[in-house]
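Q: Fold this one first, please.
A: Sequence and structure below.
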Amino acid sequence: MWPGPYSEWGSKKNIIASCDQSLKRLQSDYVDIFYHHRPDPDTPIEETARALDLLVQQGKALYIGISNYSAEQTKAITKVFRALGTPFIIHQPRYNMLDRWIEDGLTDVLADEGIGAITFSPLAQGLLTNRYLNGIPADSRVARPDSPFLSPEKVDQTISTVQELNKIAQQRGQSLSEMALAWNLQQPTVASVLVGASRLSQLQDSVHALDNLTFTAEELAAIQKILA
């Protein structure tokens, strides 16, 4: 947020200042949900939790969310929030067919604590779309040398998997991206997904995922076999 100490992470100084700066940019008195986007290894989790709770007390946020917290970190901060009476309602993790880390404990914690997940990167930066089914298009961001998230190597590593998933999507009468979003939503702890779009057609494609959210046991087993 600014040069020098306390410029990021989870200290009370950073959290309060970050919220104040965001509200100033938004020209708003409050936000519906204020997220803490990553746990701070150098700040006690109690300080982070109390700072987030203070935002609610000050009327700057109605609810609190966290992002990228592990199962144990989520359990720890939830305990503090419950003691404080903080309206902590949502966890925002990265989750998609190619990145299922939340299934290794986090989904259990969310279910036990009654907290929903709103997942980001559900299409794996475009890997779970028809964009790279037949290789890397010359005008794609993967083809650019400055692409921060995707690389030709990553496309090469996943292309056979994505092609097999696309066959199941076609059998379901969906595009690959529609099926990928529907698959996210069939996870019981996932309340919603965050979708990005650079064109209206991409957003329309995402919305059509709602046309078929049900998977048969055979489809889930086939998907699991491909992803294993």
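Q: Good. Now the second chain.
A: Here it is, same layout.
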Amino acid sequence: MAVGVLALQGSFNEHIAVLRRLGVKGVEIRKPEQLQSVTSLIIPGGESTTMAKLAEYHNLFPSLREFVKMGKPVWGTCAGLIFLANKASGQKTGGQELVGGLDCTVHRNFFGSQIQSFEAELLVPSIAAKEGGPPTFRGVFIRAPAILEVGPDVEVLADILVPSNKTVDPNSTLDSQEESTGTADKVIVAVKQGNLLGTAFHPELTADTRWHSYFLKMVGEVVEGASSSSIVAVGEEFSFYQQPKIDLPIFQ
């Protein structure tokens, strides 16, 4: 099994390293014709506007949209999630082109700037049920987006409470939102819809490989000859649940 990783900008090397740990080859994708050699794709985190400009320069958007429409598994992390969303708000002037396919509205940089990056323990019952391990996952959020609305066919895999003194406004960043009445609001940070998976955080920056294993099972379901049992057997060689080595503020 070979998994394509869009390698225009961002944390594509980190995703490839995790795939290697799980015994799977990651293939760097930079041109439309390279998509023909893979049956699945990871769109990594990075600077979404820059990635979009590079994708447009290489004429990748038509091929990426066709890849999604063909039902091939695609996982977007952080900026990759923005790429997959049908609608994005909080963008720079002029906006950016999207691949689409994921029936949701994403707010770009919802949690603030680079210096407001953080870690948080997320409840992930669906991941724990399928991959085992603890019921929580330590999410790393770096200039992270958030999912404000989802369609009826979208499965929510994780959410997070925003600070109780903020309101959820899809037309502004979290920093500029008005004071609320004191009640906390939930925003969604991980979803699945058919062949598409989206996370607002960066699983590739932690030692917990369960999200990658979960995605590989999605791939195995559509790749002839692949089976989820073989992927689990590979994954069992590694320790999924070590604490991440990076140290960001804890989101309370």
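Q: Anything worth noting on the second one?
A: Confidence is low (pLDDT under 50) at residues 165-182, 225-252.
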